[in-house]
């Protein structure tokens, strides 16, 4: 009984062959099993396959998307790059750069050897930081000003490949930002409103006379910053 079953199984396997369907336009080969011998068309297809050279598929190189950092300020064609490294991703303003000399900041922070600064900036919106924006808008109106671009800025300590918090309210991190064109006014003056965690705020005055930029003293640690434009009287 087992011998007869084995013979029938071998007989069945011998009658199964692979028929190949070739697509000459796409270069794809589809194989499927069918019972019986090869037909004339299938035999021709198999012969064509045997004459076809192997196709080598080369994987496309993975495209790396690099997000440009917004860490420069351009005034009258002169480019100023931030003196501190980090991730500058606040795009609501045309450009932002810390302009304090690095040596002066390291002295203020009393950094040891191999300690560095690390700056992170990103935009703030009503749906990401509603309380911060509401607070800044209220402060601006109280000072008869209009709130413009808002962003968050964090100045941290970088040591041994790690980023650590840095809290030092006495530090003066002089920072320059470009004013968005749509927010400019010929007779307006500007400042920056600073709000820290807990709701405490401060109006940071504009320290330069350039009509296209605002220069202010930022703080170490994390804070929300907003450009304000005093209304004409």
SSE blueprint and pairings:
Blueprint: H1 2-14, E1 16-22, E2 29-35, H2 40-51, E3 72-75, E4 78-81, E5 86-89, E6 96-98, H3 102-109, E7 115-123, H4 130-142, E8 145-159, E9 162-164, E10 173-178, E11 190-195, E12 201-205, E13 213-218, E14 221-230
Parallel strand pairs: 5-7
Antiparallel strand pairs: 1-2, 3-4, 6-10, 7-8, 8-9, 8-14, 10-13, 11-12, 11-14
Cα(first) to Cα(last) distance is 109 Å
What does the radius of gyration come to? 34 Å
Helical content, roughly? 10-25%
Q: What number is the mean pLDDT?
A: 79
Q: Outline the low-pLDDT stretches.
A: 1-42, 48-53
What is the string of helix and strand elements? HEEHEEEEHEHEEEEEEE
The total strand number stands at 14
Shape designation: globular
What portion of residues belong to β-strands?
A: 35-45%
Number of helices: 4
Biggest sheet overview: 7 strands, mixed
What structural class do the secondary elements suggest? alpha+beta
What this model shows, in words?
The protein is an alpha+beta fold. Helix content is 20%, strand content 38%. It has four helices and 14 strands. The chain has helices at residues 2-14, 40-51, 102-109, 130-142, and strands at residues 16-22, 29-35, 72-75, 78-81, 86-89, 96-98, 115-123, 145-159, 162-164, 173-178, 190-195, 201-205, 213-218, 221-230. The strands form four sheets. Strands 5, 7, 8, 9, 11, 12 and 14 form a seven-stranded mixed beta sheet that branches. Strands 6-10-13 form a three-stranded antiparallel beta sheet, with no helix packed on it. Strand 1 and strand 2 (29-35) form a beta hairpin. The model is unreliable at 1-42 and 48-53 (pLDDT under 50).
């Amino acid at each position: 009984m087992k011998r007869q079953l084995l013979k029938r199984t071998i007989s069945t396997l011998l009658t199964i062959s692979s028929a190949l369907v070739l697509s000459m336009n796409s270069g794809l080969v589809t194989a499927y099993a069918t019972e019986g011998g090869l037909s004339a068309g299938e035999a021709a297809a198999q012969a064509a396959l045997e004459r076809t050279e192997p196709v080598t598929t080369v994987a496309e190189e993975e495209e790396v998307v690099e997000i440009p950092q917004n860490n420069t300020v351009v005034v009258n064609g002169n480019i100023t790059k931030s003196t501190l490294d980090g991730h500058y991703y606040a795009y609501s303003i045309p450009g932002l750069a810390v302009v304090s000399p690095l040596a002066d900041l390291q002295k203020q922070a009393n950094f040891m050897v191999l300690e560095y600064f690390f700056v992170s900036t990103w935009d703030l919106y009503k749906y990401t930081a509603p309380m911060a924006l509401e607070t800044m808008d209220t402060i601006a109106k109280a000072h008869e000003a209009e709130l413009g671009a808002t962003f968050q800025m964090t100045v941290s300590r970088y040591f041994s490949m790690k980023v650590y918090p840095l809290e030092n309210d006495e530090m003066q991190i002089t920072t320059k930002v470009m004013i968005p064109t749509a927010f400019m006014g010929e007779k307006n003056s500007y400042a920056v409103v600073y709000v820290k965690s807990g709701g405490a705020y401060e109006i940071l005055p504009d320290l330069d006379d350039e009509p296209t930029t605002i220069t202010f003293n930022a703080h170490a640690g994390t804070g929300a910053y907003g450009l304000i434009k005093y209304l004409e009287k």
